[in-house]
Amino acid sequence: MENWIQKTGTAGAAACYAPQLLGHPGVRHVYTTRQGGVSQGVFASLNFRHTGDGPENIRENRSRAAAWVGRRYEDIVRTRQEHTDRIDVVRQWAPGIRIGFDGQGPSDGLVTNVPGVCLMGFYADCQLIFFYDKRNRAIGCVHSGWRGTAQGIAEKTIAIMAREYGTQPQDLVCAIGPSICQDCFETDADVGQQLEERFGPEVNRFCVKKGAKYHWDTKALNAWRLREAGVPAGQIAVCPLCTCCGDGDLWWSHRRQGTDRGVHAGLIALEG
């Protein structure tokens, strides 16, 4: 198993890195764990969720995470995730750009080719997928829960990058970050019905039925969608770590903890 967990410079805090992306000097990325921040209580310590935590804690936590990819708090462009398939294009850099706010609708994905911009998305069981076009120097950060997966958000990201930057799938390196595993992701039949409506009966190979419940391997499903879109299998990193049944000192989990918890972040930025 590839080693995704490494120590950062912040008091030896654990953070998560995709091995395939680490091999490319033109891009920096990180998936955060709970460690390395300033929040307290159920949010201890590297929390990015505003609800219940102080804004000064959130700002400091975001600043620390941005520094791990060589950027500042002011360089962050963040999503407003509502399980949509909307992907916004960041075409300019300006301090404090906030996608999904200031009169815009929700956005579960961001793409850019602007050096200096730090794309940020959030997760606590859902997948956060990074995209790096090594030829055209463009990046993407996409939140994909099962609803986003059923709407084809990964494939749509590739299509938007092709339109905006001339991206070819064979030039992409992708990472599917820490998220809930198949054993823990128990659903009713409606999830499978929506996935089958989108992808056909072949999608059921990613499901195991246990009694009246269905267990979906959404990591493998999204990796399949990336391959089907033309990304070479060897250029797709899939994190084996589960946020639900994994180490509770590292992970928050919506499935395990409900809303009484913090939220992780993933950050990706082009080297300037």
Structural features:
alpha+beta; globular; 7 helices; six-stranded mixed β-sheet; 23% helix; 272 residues; CNF1/YfiH-like putative cysteine hydrolases
Strand-helix topology:
Layout: E1 5-7, E2 14-16, H1 19-22, E3 27-32, H2 55-68, E4 76-78, E5 87-90, E6 109-112, E7 118-123, E8 127-133, E9 138-144, H3 146-150, H4 153-165, E10 172-176, E11 186-187, H5 189-199, E12 207-210, E13 213-216, H6 218-228, E14 236-238, H7 254-257, E15 264-270
Parallel strand pairs: 4-7, 5-6, 10-14
Antiparallel strand pairs: 1-2, 2-3, 3-15, 6-9, 7-15, 8-9, 8-10, 11-13, 12-13
- Kindly state the number of beta strands: 15
Report the CATH topology name: CNF1/YfiH-like putative cysteine hydrolases
Side by side, the strands of the main sheet go 1-2-3-15-7-4
Low-confidence stretches: none
Give the overall shape. Answer: globular
The biggest sheet, with number of strands, parallel, antiparallel or mixed sense and barrel status, is:
6 strands, mixed
* Structural class by SSE content: alpha+beta
- Provide the gyration radius in Å: 17 Å
Number of structural domains: 1
Kindly report how far apart the N and C termini lie.
Answer: 32 Å
